[in-house]
Design brief:
369 residues, binds 4'-deoxy-4'-aminopyridoxal-5'-phosphate, 39% helix, globular, 3-stranded antiparallel sheet, Aspartate Aminotransferase, domain 2, 7-stranded mixed sheet, Aspartate Aminotransferase, domain 1, alpha/beta, 2 domains
Length: 369
């Protein structure tokens, strides 16, 4: 094959480095896997049953592009109750990732600048580049807080969008109400599209989850069922925001994803009636476990949500630290996958407590050596 077949737009970025750690994992006999970005529990049985029933009842054809009526209506009713924005509409996407792709395609023109807080979810920068946008990184180290002065300084006449994610991947840090409100009002004032990636909204441990959409009715919220109900393989997300933006995303979905998987949407409808609070409470316990286990050994900001901690590497590069961890069968992700810096590493605490304890033991050993 000719190398020239490959489109230039794909050359700006590499394949996700996380996959390389997963490949390494396959070669270990008894890995302590703290690298995975999905809950360690399975989809609860009633949700699986609803999906299986949908398949058996022949609900296997295309769904409407915007999603099956009952799921959409249910989400819309919840959204209307919460926000009371007359122009806020929802549609079902193929995962949160599908919602992110369609957001970029719908709103970012070549040359438009998109502000991203560093460290960031791996997909953000490549997706911006894919549509010809220019990622503008705002460094949030060492505490991963958003400094509104830095945001104001980063805004230019070309700024089209700000990508915001709380609870955050890879840090687990949850934004304060002041940060959320500050971003929301700044975007309203400057007429900048604010995307709020709320995929970890279920995993928000210390008080209720707040959204910038409460303070700026034009905020585009992306959420989904992947993390909240451990259905990362079901590919179900949803996006809500101003109707013009949502209509554009639905139009593009027609020509790309077509629709989110139909039987899974019936499963998701059942998921909306399933109480997940005990699962999230267990994860708050896992957060406490890992924080207590590492507090005296590493520098990190205590996560308020998601299932990640992002500690500072005591010395050396990320690659070197991860190699040493793998020598002890521990899988973690080097921070440079999520960042312009190579100074931290990501731990996922979405694992059984016994695995967390083994991981803590190795990490303590590595901190001392
Ligand atoms: N946003 C963030 C911040 C994530 O961490 C992930 C998954 N790792 C996604 C979006 C994509 O999730 P989905 O499975 O719904 O596509």
């Amino acid at each position: 094959m000719q190398p020239s077949w490959i489109a230039k737009r794909t050359l700006a970025f590499d394949s996700s480095g996380i996959r390389k750690v997963f490949e390494l994992a396959a070669s270990l006999k008894n890995p302590i896997n703290l690298s995975i970005g999905q809950p360690d529990f399975d989809v609860p049985a009633p949700i699986k049953k609803a999906c299986i029933e949908a398949i058996e009842q022949g609900k296997n054809a295309y769904a409407p592009t915007q999603g099956i009526g009952p799921l959409r209506e249910r989400l819309q009713a919840d959204i209307d109750r919460k926000y009371q924005h007359p122009d806020r509409k929802v549609f079902i996407s193929s995962g949160t990732s599908g919602g992110l792709v369609l957001s970029m395609l719908s709103m970012v023109d070549p040359g438009d600048e998109v502000i991203v807080f560093d460290p960031y979810f791996v997909m953000y920068v490549p997706l911006i580049q894919l549509v010809g946008g220019v990622p503008v990184l705002i460094d949030t180290y060492p505490d991963f807080r958003i400094d509104m002065n830095k945001v104001r300084d980063a805004i230019t006449p070309k700024t089209k969008m700000i990508l915001f994610n709380s609870p955050g991947n890879p840090t687990g840090v949850t934004a304060t109400l002041e940060e959320i409100q500050g971003l929301a009002t700044l975007c309203a004032e400057k007429n900048i599209a604010l995307i709020s990636d709320e995929i970890y909204s279920g995993f928000h441990f210390d008080g209720p989850m707040r959204s910038p959409a409460e303070f700026n009715p034009n905020t585009i919220v992306i959420d989904g069922f992947s993390k909240s109900h451990a259905m990362t393989g079901w590919r179900l997300g949803y996006v809500h925001g101003p109707s013009e933006v949502i209509q554009t995303m639905i139009k593009l979905q027609q020509y790309s994803f077509v629709c989110a998987p139909t039987p899974m949407q019936w499963g998701a409808l059942a998921a909306m009636d399933h109480d997940m609070s005990q699962y999230y409470q267990d994860y708050a316990g896992k957060r406490d476990r890992i924080v207590a286990g590492l507090r005296d050994y590493y520098e990190f900001t205590e996560p308020g949500g998601a299932f990640y901690v992002f500690p500072k590497i005591p010395k050396g590069t990320g690659a070197d630290f991860v190699r040493r961890a793998i020598e002890h069968e521990l899988l973690i992700i080097p921070g440079n996958i999520f960042s312009a810096r190579d100074t931290h590493f990501r731990i996922s605490f979405a694992a059984p407590d016994a695995t967390l304890d083994r991981g803590i033991e190795v990490l303590r050993k590595l901190a001392r050596s």
